């Protein structure tokens, strides 16, 4: 995407808690107005914009009567229940003053792990975008438990960008971008302007926790970038407080780091994208070495004869981890049998009976080699 090729883009913007709140932990009207003004300018230019906004807990914990950010889950969720209302009220008021309507979408990981709900989220947001409305997405922290969380809004923003087949993901935080080492510890650290591949060296350089009012550090941002790049979505990481950061990021003129997907990136369709990054596998099946060759090299489906072992209880249509005998994972796939049916058919196959219907259709399998990161992240 060049500076001239920026008309009518679909842009997902992730805004971290520190980019929205004051040092006292409450919503900063000044910060919010700046970001809203820039989103409005993008809208006026003809772009579709989706916000993935943190800040609910940070906005609400003072109103809950807490002097510091809560540590316990019930207090965090109570703070979020207050902060979500305050946050969307502030957004709505500011966008309406410019003639734009904002909507709130609170989701959980369960909304993405269930394929029907996943598709429904996409359809809902697409309708909003078609009507010129600005969707504001956040994880529903009020009801989400730790084991069912996305983890952080960096990851959520990448998955939303993929869900909507976005042109660009912009991650705003309180840092300028990705450095070759931690600039807080190394005064000679260099800002990386462009990155085309997430190397082990880059992952090693990305570490540490987030700010006091946020949950995501640089590692979570790199994980989000890996998802976006695997889906062919270019990503920008920059500092929210820079003037015109959003406008400049879209026009390829901002200070920060641009992560650019290469031309040979495999872009997964919506079905395979859901399998790879959102489904939540229900069990594990061990396959023969021949099955690995069929799936990866020959792009063929797998029959029951190639199944060696299975673990877990699952229904027909569940997503299952596919593994080799040595334990290495091949990828994920939608199984055509329940665990009980599969075990029964395995036993019959050993007695010489065969079955026409494959265990895994190749169109419903995502191998690790199909994308640049391990599936299931």
In summary, what is this structure?
With 377 residues, the chain is α/β, with parallel strands linked by helices. The protein has helices spanning 29-44, 56-60, 73-96, 109-113, 115-130, 153-163, 200-205, 218-230, 245-250, 270-277, 289-297, 339-350, and strands at residues 10-15, 48-53, 102-107, 134-139, 168-173, 194-195, 234-239, 257-259, 284-287, 307-311, 319-323, 329-335, 360-367.
Q: N-to-C terminal Cα separation, in Å?
A: 27 Å
Instruction: Tell me the name of the CATH class of the largest domain.
Output: Alpha Beta
Report the biggest beta sheet as strand number plus sense, adding barrel if it closes: 8 strands, mixed
Helical fraction equals 25-40%
Strand order of the largest sheet: 3-4-2-1-5-7-8-6
The number of helical elements comes to 12
Please report which band the strand proportion falls in: under 5%, 5-15%, 15-25%, 25-35%, 35-45% or over 45%: 15-25%
Sequence stretches where pLDDT stays below 50 over 5 or more residues? 208-216
Task: Look at the structure and name the CATH superfamily of the largest domain.
Answer: Acetylglutamate kinase-like
Order of helices and strands: EHEHHEHHEHEEHHEHEHEHEEEHE
């Amino acid at each position: 995407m060049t500076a001239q090729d920026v008309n009518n883009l679909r842009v997902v913007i992730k805004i971290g808690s520190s980019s929205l709140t004051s040092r006292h932990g409450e919503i900063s009207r000044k910060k919010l107005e700046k970001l809203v003004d820039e989103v409005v300018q993008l809208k006026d230019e003809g772009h579709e914009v989706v916000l993935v906004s943190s800040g609910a807990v940070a906005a609400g914990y003072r109103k809950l009567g807490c002097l510091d950010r809560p540590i316990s889950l019930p207090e965090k969720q109570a703070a979020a229940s207050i902060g979500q209302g305050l946050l969307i009220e502030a957004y709505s008021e500011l966008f309406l003053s410019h003639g734009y309507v904002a909507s709130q979408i609170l989701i959980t990981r369960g909304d993405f792990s269930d394929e029907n709900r996943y598709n429904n989220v996409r359809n809902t947001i697409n309708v909003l975008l078609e009507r010129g409305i600005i969707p504001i997405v956040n994880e529903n922290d009020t009801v989400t438990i730790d084991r069912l969380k996305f983890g952080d809004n960096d990851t959520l923003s990448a998955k939303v960008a993929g869900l909507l087949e976005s042109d660009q993901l912009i991650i705003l935080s309180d840092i300028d971008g990705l450095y070759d080492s931690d600039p807080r510890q190394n005064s000679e650290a260099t800002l990386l302007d462009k990155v085309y591949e997430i190397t082990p060296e880059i992952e090693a350089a990305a570490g540490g926790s987030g700010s006091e009012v946020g949950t995501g550090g640089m590692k979570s941002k790199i994980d989000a970038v890996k998802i976006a790049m695997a889906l062919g979505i270019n990503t920008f990481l920059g500092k929210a407080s820079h003037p015109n950061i959003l406008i400049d990021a879209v026009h390829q003129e901002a200070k920060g780091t641009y992560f650019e997907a290469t031309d040979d990136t495999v872009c997964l369709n919506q079905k395979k994208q859901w399998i790879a990054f959102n489904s939540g596998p229900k069990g594990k099946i061990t396959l023969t070495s021949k099955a690995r060759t069929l799936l990866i090299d020959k792009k063929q489906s797998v029959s029951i004869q190639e199944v060696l072992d299975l673990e877990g209880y699952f229904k027909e249509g569940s997503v299952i981890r596919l593994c080799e005998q040595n334990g290495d994972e091949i990828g994920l796939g939608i199984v055509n049998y329940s665990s009980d049916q599969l075990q029964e058919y395995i036993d019959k196959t050993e007695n010489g009976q065969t079955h026409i219907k494959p265990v895994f259709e190749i169109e419903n399998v995502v191998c690790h080699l199909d994308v640049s990161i391990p599936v299931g992240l």
